[in-house]
Amino acid sequence: MRNQSTGPSAFDDDKDFGRTPDLNADVSGRRRAGKKRVCKYCADKITFIDYKDPQALKYFVTDRGKVVPRRISGNCALHQRKVTQAIKRARNIALLPFTVTS
């Protein structure tokens, strides 16, 4: 048996789902597109990332010791992998901490 309704469809009323009739009407919650970040290593044509330089690597580590993601650091995929590998190597020889003790 089919479920037939005599009134208007539940999908006709946009207010039930929190949607506005015009898709462009509510743009206050959207983030503005910023300037495209350029990979600092690509811009300077750097191919080797030194794991023995903790001052350069600290820029890519949060205060809790986590590796900063690509979308925040601005690195390209290739250099993000190299930075991550360098951070892991620096941690293993105790140049960078694994975690921060509080």
Summarize the structure.
The chain is an all-alpha fold. The chain has helices at 40-43, 54-57, 70-73, 77-92.
What is the strand and helix layout of this fold?
Blueprint: H1 40-43, H2 54-57, H3 70-73, H4 77-92
Number of helices: 4
Helix coverage percent: 25-40%
Shape: elongated
Task: List SSEs in N-to-C order.
Answer: HHHH
Spans of at least 5 consecutive residues whose pLDDT stays below 50 are none
Largest sheet: none
Rg (CA only) = 24 Å
Residue-averaged pLDDT: 82
Query: What structural class results from the helix and strand content?
Result: mainly alpha
Q: What proportion strand? A: under 5%
Oligomer: single chain
β-strand number: 0
Report on the structure:
The chain is mostly helical. Helices cover 27% and strands 0% of the residues. It is built from 4 helices and no strands. The longest helix is centred in the last third of the chain and has 16 residues, at 77-92. It is elongated. It starts with 39 loop residues before the first helix and ends in a 10-residue tail after the last helix. The mean pLDDT is 82.
